[in-house]
Specification:
eight-stranded antiparallel beta barrel; mainly beta; two-stranded antiparallel sheet; single chain; 151 residues; 0% helix
């Protein structure tokens, strides 16, 4: 099954985000197949909580039932103590890991996401911690140009 094309999606922040739990971020996602089950994708935040203005690139795997991918933005989005967001374009973001299944009844992917941060001392990675988790869903909008196979 060809899943290449344009998608819309919503990411929901989980309880690890405390007072921001339940807030949503809407995004576009363009899947370009690289071989039978692997893909590259580009994502752009549209609106909602925590919009990063830089593009994100993803690599992943899917089949008729599952999707797994890692996404990374060109810049890091951080929050100040007063709750304002600012971007650090000198650093790429940590990878965001997505795990999901295909819901045929709703015709969309849905699942969970998490982000891990590396803790470094004197430039040497000591360990990773999982800071954020949440839910996501994504639905097909239209095929890529010149994509005669559709879905």
């Amino acid at each position: 099954m060809n899943r290449a094309g344009f998608y819309k999606g919503t990411l929901t922040y989980g309880k690890s985000y405390r007072q921001f739990q339940g807030k949503e971020l809407n995004f576009d996602f363009m899947i370009m197949k690289t071989d039978e089950n692997n893909f590259n994708a580009m994502s752009r935040d549209l609106d909602g909580f925590g919009v990063n203005s830089s593009d994100a690139f993803a690599r992943g795997f899917f089949n008729d039932q599952f999707i797994v991918f890692k996404k990374r933005y060109d810049s890091t989005l951080q929050m100040s103590k007063n709750g304002d967001f600012f971007e650090d374009s000198s650093r790429k973001s940590p990878e965001v890991h997505y795990f999901g299944t295909y819901n045929a009844e709703q015709e969309e992917f849905e699942g969970t996401w998490k982000v891990k941060f590396e803790v470094k001392v004197f430039g040497k990675k000591i360990f990773k911690i999982t800071h954020g988790r949440g839910a996501w869903r994504m639905w097909y909008e239209k095929p890529l140009p010149d994509d005669d196979l559709g879905r």
